[in-house]
Amino acid sequence: MDEYMLETIELELAILIRRTTSITSNKKISKLDRSAYLLLHQLSANGSAGIKVLSDEFRLDISTVSRQAAALEQKGYVYRIPDPLDGRAYSLQITDLGTKELIEYKQARIKRITELLKDWSEEEKDSFGKLLKKFNQSFIDR
Amino acid sequence: MDEYMLETIELELAILIRRTTSITSNKKISKLDRSAYLLLHQLSANGSAGIKVLSDEFRLDISTVSRQAAALEQKGYVYRIPDPLDGRAYSLQITDLGTKELIEYKQARIKRITELLKDWSEEEKDSFGKLLKKFNQSFIDR
DNA sequence: GATAAATAGTTGTATAATACAATAACATAG
DNA sequence: CTATGTTATTGTATTATACAACTATTTATC
Questions:
Q1: Which nucleotides of D are covered by protein (CB under 7 A)?
Q2: Which residues touch strand D (CB under 7 A)?
Q3: Global pTM?
Q4: Most buried in the list A50, A68, B48, B130, measured by CB within 10 Å?
Q5: pLDDT tens sequence across B56-96
């Protein structure tokens, strides 16, 4: 029973990833992509931070975050504040435009998920959210 | 409450995808990648099929599946049976070697997930598996 | 304080998974 | 039999990632 459920989880996760990857490369719903969205979310929720800190939090390579940040800066969604104590470093700060886009994108995502889950019970949604969060937690801690 | 939970689901899904993408491009655990794994799984579970049928089932572009199939054939994990009724088409059949790799890969994945979820209750695992499956269902039906 | 080692960030290059467009070979409908 | 549709392949582009080489700067060591 246990073994079987793990197999299900394992398979359904793989399917989920493939499906999302496909949809992502498909539709340009908004001006934001997933990586940009998560970066903006982080800056918005937890305040400004440098590339290094962000890449640690995200468990991504510094170079990856560096490019993501450059793209966001180029679009005017973030700006850089040089670190007064360290000439190499700076903080990324979300702009008003960035905040606006973030909210719009988030709203569009929530709308889509609301639609997908419209037949789910409150309890199921609640449970799914919590378990996903818990899974990501274990996942991140490795 | 509802709105909040949808926001959580939405965010945690994005995080999950990013995290998995990162890990995928990171570790070569096995000879299989996720796409190859899912293709083999499909052939193993639902019998042989052609590229067209597979790409419909997977909601992927034909060209994508065509390349995945070519890669698997090249490794000796599948072989082609020409369709006797249609000179353009053929069936993909999993080989013994393919089956062997599939089982090994699946086992490795289950092991990893077992480890990740070792502190979860039976009920949580059960619930997570079912909800993931249900989510993919809604997701696929669009 | 001078030099060595560590750190923050950028840029070049590579890989994986996808899509779309053009094409070839074949099948079916009129 | 010709026009249209279908299966699969191949060329090209995009996106998100990693690793490696590099620059500029900071910190540690002697």
A1: 6-11, 14-21, 24-27
A2: A 24-25, 33-36, 59-61, 63-64, 67-68, 85-88; B 18, 21-22, 25-26, 50-53, 62-63, 66-67, 69-70, 83, 86, 88-90
A3: 0.89
A4: A68
A5: 999 999 999 999 999 999 999 999 999 998 999 999 999 99
User: B121 lies in which domain range?
Assistant: 31-141
Contact A39, A77 (CB under 8 A): no
Per residue in A67-125, pLDDT (tens digit) is 999 999 999 999 999 999 999 999 999 999 999 999 999 998 899 899 999 999 999 99
Query: Length of chain A in residues, anyone?
Result: 142
Output b/e per residue, B70-94; b: 16+ Cβ within 10 A. Answer: eebeeeebbebeeeeeeeeebbbeb
Give the CATH number of the domain where residue A38 resides.
Answer: 1.10.10.10
Domain annotation covers residue B3: no
Q: Which two tokens stand for residue B141?
A: 């039906």
Does the CB of B30 sit below 7 A from strand C?
no
Helix, coil or strand: residue B83: coil
Give the one of A18, A38, A128 whose C-beta lies nearest to B38's C-beta: A18
